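Entry 0007
Protein: DtxR family iron (Metal) dependent repressor
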Amino acid sequence: MTSESQYLLVIYRASRTRSEPVSPGHVADALDRSPAAATEMLQRLETRGLLEYEPYEGATLTAEGRETAEELYETYAVLSQFFREVLDLENPEAEALELAGSVSPVVTERVAETLLEGDAAESIDDDVVQSPLEGS
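Output (structure tokens):
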């Protein structure tokens, strides 16, 4: 099941690379969900105050939603790099997307420290972290 954190990550990433609002179709495609399922989750996130949703137009993160998404993205980026550099997983970004909302800040910090200590890490940034958040 796709969690709220995955939706926030997709919207956050898309809002950084394209104009807002982020269309429900983009979100559905990026997460391999039906447009109806994406719309339902966007409405749920709006109810929670994490984004503003306009039918047929798309979603824009609120200040609270952006703050939450930024924290999730940091975890996503660290996990993605750890899975790539240390565990050599085939699709580290997809694995990181699955776990980002479940990992505590303490774990994220320790993983980042491990990457830096072991010289396994490049700079953790957007150039390193690609698909599945890229979407179309």
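Curator remark: Residues 120-132 have pLDDT under 50 and may be disordered. The chain has two domains: 4-65, 67-117.
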